[in-house]
């Protein structure tokens, strides 16, 4: 009894002692609970919920059991009257509990249990076993404090009422736990009639069975059942004893469900994984604050970029996606006079190469001279002209350091046209390809940027106009006019016009010739000069005078894009209005079909070009790598080099025979000559 | 991507350079809601956009309760009116494999393809040139199907399989952890598995049958056809397919946000082996 009282919270149930031996007997006989039935949970909402304990056990005997909450039978079938059900957590306690026949009986609280009720009992099933055998006397569990909900109801001495009464109570119990009427009605302390006790347990049993069956019902969706879930949850709560468990009960429930999926217990929390994001965030925050500017991250990046270099104009060019990292590209125009040092170094190395090759030729006089002459390297264009008009800086991430890309050489462009490779994101990756690309990823990137700019940078017609007309035409400025400037009188073109007709857009970047440059470089001239220097030795090589290479011409600057070639009946550009719903605010968007990812857009007055993509040209046919060239005739064929078969045996013998015959003939001739001489002498 | 979280998902996927203008987003939001109601789908996904020459197709898909069941595909030209597409069949695939090039943007456009077919005329067998007409809608259906089968992605743990068969969304999925998110093996193909049976018994022993019932991306051929990157520090992991350029899958680790979108021309990148 003491236990009971200690366990209790304000319940309406009065624990009572039950115990008359005769009751026991009857109880024993009417052991209702089928072993395995969950004990009806008395969810005593106790003080927290402030609910009435609900119906007291129907039995008049008021044996109530406080069952551990694991068995949250909402329906609370009351335990058989004469049984003291126990809610002991362990059978052992049960055994202990059952000491004497006078142990108080607990009535089951048959109030339905709210699943969230906190019960701390883990072994729910014990009760059923307990119920099954023991005698009615059980007591409350040892851990009374945990069972706030447990009903430590008082024992009644009363026997269970008649079956009907019990039944009705049962039904009521099933309905609602908050019905105080039940409890009230249960408090009738009429004398229990032992006789009826046998009947009511059956109803209770059935009720308990039904309740438990319901809880064990497997969910059709997840394969779990409520019974197991609740028991797991309560186990966890009892093990961990969190503070304010009622407030976090939903999270506990969710954690238990999740634990179902993960197999290993990984108690280490990898908090440090989140650090990289904090670092980048810190860096970017510093950038944001530094310039005291507000605006897009991009502008700030450029701001920092401009501080470091003497830059006149800087523009966001676009983003090139890579395998491991991406590139964010900025197009920069340096002020005059910058960046010329690199050029000188290049020239020096070229001269040295030429000197070496000449020396080699002199040494190899004895060996047949190779006729191979490397195609002359086409010198790259000057800075700020042609393909190298702008300098490009790349970074991998906003906030990362900017790296300058080297200038592009025509050879690189020519080969870049023949290969198709993904960018990895690291500038020093070698490009392994056929034909071999002269350079690493930074050069390839620069070459692709040059090609994309040349192919897709367009502006509305009239935005740019040519500068002053230049008088000289033929020799120097063969490639067409280069300079252009903004037209101050540009008034803008209607957006709808921009969308409808492609002739309203013009290229403002020079086209790159097949040679790899924008301005035609005639390699023939130089060859003639060289030949003049080395007349004698190289007379043979005059035959090798390169054929006249036709001058390569590309479309001049500022040609409308309607002149762009189609690819297999696909127009080179697709135009769209950005929005069909509000045409007055829409902007015209031009999408390139040749370079997927290149966009140009304009709202009539202002325009912009940019690129986001993988950096490759579109071709409807699949890429085929170029075939290696046929083996080159390096050396002139002549008797010195031509292989001949070794003579066969017959040939050799015939040869020797012939030789022998010749010798004989020679000897005879000599003899005859000698004879003749002698004869002459005699004469 | 889920139509419910459309705006957030579009933001997260925008690193690949494909976005939608505000009015299209607004129209999508409303029209996808209506589609969900009218067709009674459990979930509606905005699949993406196929760029045509004249117009673009916006594609959406509707899923039923079982996530692996065949999906219904709808297309629209203006993000408002959606039309149902027929389900894909193998013959369609064979038929459209001969068509190359861009989509035009006109669903009634027909591609002409001349084939040499053997015609039996009595005893004579001769070849005739037959012009086969293939509708653009058919091509659209089969391309969408191919892309789904090849490169649609779902993270491990987002779906689970019940013993009865149907596959459900896992409500307790809280996102991959950072270390898991960087590995290609934590992502699965969102389609019926084809390679699971080929795994060795040792490997199978490590699998959890309720979670590991799909093919992982790890063993895709050619190796390296996925580019996996972390953006914004470690706050977002983005997978891009190199085989079908334009497919982007994003996931914010430790959150439930994940999804994929395809914006591209609808052509396979056959040059992939040369490009790696």
TrEMBL record, chain B:
One GO CC annotation: axoneme
InterPro entries: RSP9 (IPR055316)
Keywords of the record: Cell projection, Cilium, Cilium biogenesis/degradation, Cytoplasm, Cytoskeleton, Flagellum
Highest taxon above the source species: Eukaryota
Compartments reported by the entry: Cell projection, Kinocilium; Cytoplasm, Cytoskeleton, Flagellum axoneme
Family from the record: Belongs to the flagellar radial spoke RSP9 family.
Name this polypeptide is given: Radial spoke head protein 9 homolog
Species for this entry: Equus caballus (Horse)
Gene coding for it: RSPH9
